[in-house]
């Protein structure tokens, strides 16, 4: 009798396991804002719209760009932790206000080009993932860039030092400290407010990627561009751990594999867009944007030196002091992962 009962229980368990694994998982997804341009339009949104088929998983995906949800980018980690949404395309600089550890991915001067940016992301993502799991019940699925963030101005400039006395739009405290160190006046502004602020003279200059600037029409209200890469504007995909744990280990592997492919694709696409948009903005032949006629300022050796020294002298010390207050091992974890590459 006992053997019969045990066999029945085991049999029921075996039959139930595949059924549980095949339950449809609903993914409520917040994507990048529509205003950010072609990566959101051509890579991210199509990925989520076809994720069920490409990953071969029982999914029901409801994808919404951030600027259609009423949620602010600085609230994304809170939204994930609460479970209001299951998966979010994280704007790393903006959410670093809630978790300063994240900003270690993108300190000013750390990643002036794509090669260094990818190396930093690969080496430091594990540190960020551990912290997000501990504090925000969120697993990091991947990190990707909008690309080097450069300077647009509505006043003639010949070098980085010419921002002295000018009001410069920034998007995080690390960048604000650097701008202040070279004599500029940092003004925090959301991306959607920059075009009007430039037009009205609220700011004299603003920093973003060439492609995003082109999509948002910044060259309509500026005259000069200095193609010096201050930061890589890294972003990432975070999934609520409760949602992640609804998948079997095999399904988790498939889902992670799909995001690995997306991230690799965006790294390559971002670099294509960066080069093409640089050409568009200064009136050279281009394919993906609108042609403008900005004056391209040549990056000087002095500009590069200021940026390189900025990691050791400004961005790392400023950031690590803040980060250690909420995460006592923050600076040591960063130095273990990245310190050797910048002489720390």
Overview of this protein structure:
This is ABC transporter substrate-binding protein. One of its GO terms (biological process) is transmembrane transport. Keywords: Signal, Transport. It holds the Pfam family DctP. InterPro entries: DctP_fam, TRAP_DctP_sf. This protein has about 350 residues and is α/β, with parallel strands linked by helices. It folds into 2 domains: about 25-145 and about 235-275, D-Maltodextrin-Binding Protein, domain 2; about 150-230 and about 290-340, 3-Layer(aba) Sandwich (D-Maltodextrin-Binding Protein, domain 2), CATH 3.40.190.170. It has 13 helices and 11 strands. The chain has helices at about 1-20, 40-50, 50-55, 75-80, 90-95, 115-135, 175-180, 195-200, 210-215, 240-245, 250-280, 300-325, 330-340, and strands at about 25-30, 60-65, 85-90, 140-145, 150-155, 165-170, 185-190, 205-210, 225, 235-240, 295. The strands form 2 sheets. Strands 7-6-8-5-9-11 form a 6-stranded mixed sheet. The radius of gyration is 22 Å and the shape is globular. The chain starts with a helix and ends in a 6-residue tail after the last helix. Mean pLDDT is about 90; it is low at about 1-20.
Strands, helices and their partners?
Layout: H1 2-21, E1 25-31, H2 38-49, H3 51-55, E2 59-65, H4 76-82, E3 87-91, H5 92-95, H6 114-136, E4 138-145, E5 150-153, E6 167-170, H7 173-181, E7 185-188, H8 194-200, E8 205-208, H9 210-216, E9 224-226, E10 234-240, H10 241-244, H11 249-281, E11 295-296, H12 301-326, H13 330-338
Parallel strand pairs: 1-2, 1-3, 6-7, 6-8, 9-11
Antiparallel strand pairs: 3-10, 4-10, 5-8, 5-9
Helix pairs in contact: 2-11, 6-13, 7-12
């Amino acid at each position: 009798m006992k053997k019969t009962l045990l066999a029945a229980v085991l049999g029921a368990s075996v039959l139930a396991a595949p059924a549980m694994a095949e339950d449809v998982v609903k993914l409520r997804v917040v994507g990048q804002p529509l205003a950010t341009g072609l990566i959101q339009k051509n890579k991210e949104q199509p990925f989520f719209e076809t994720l069920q088929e490409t990953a071969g998983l029982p999914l029901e995906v409801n994808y919404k760009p951030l600027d259609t949800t009423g949620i602010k980018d600085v609230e994304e980690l809170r939204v994930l932790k609460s479970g209001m949404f299951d998966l979010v395309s994280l704007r790393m600089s903006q959410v670093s206000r809630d978790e300063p550890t994240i900003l270690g991915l993108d300190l000013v001067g750390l990643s002036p080009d794509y090669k260094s940016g990818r190396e930093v992301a690969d080496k430091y993502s594990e540190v960020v993932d551990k912290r997000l799991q501990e504090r925000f019940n969120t697993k990091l699925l991947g990190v990707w860039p909008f690309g080097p963030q450069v300077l647009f101005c509505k006043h003639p400039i010949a070098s980085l030092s010419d921002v002295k006395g000018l009001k410069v739009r920034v998007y995080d405290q690390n960048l604000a400290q650097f701008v202040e160190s070279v004599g500029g006046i940092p003004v925090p502004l959301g991306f959607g407010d920059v075009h009007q602020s430039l037009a009205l003279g609220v700011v004299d200059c603003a920093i973003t990627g060439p492609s995003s600037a082109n999509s948002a029409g910044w060259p309509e209200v500026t005259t000069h561009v200095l193609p010096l890469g201050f930061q890589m504007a890294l972003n990432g995909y975070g999934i609520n751990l409760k949602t992640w744990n609804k998948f079997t280990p095999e399904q988790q592997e498939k889902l992670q594999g799909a995001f690995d492919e997306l991230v690799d694709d965006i790294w390559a696409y971002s670099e294509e867009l960066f080069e093409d948009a640089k050409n568009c903005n200064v009136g050279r032949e281009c394919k993906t944007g609108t042609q403008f006629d900005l004056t391209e300022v040549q990056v000087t050796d002095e500009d590069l030196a200021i940026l390189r020294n900025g990691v050791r002298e400004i961005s790392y010390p400023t950031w690590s002091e803040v980060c250690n207050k909420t995460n006592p091992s923050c600076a040591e974890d960063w130095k273990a992962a990245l310190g050797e590459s910048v002489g720390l």
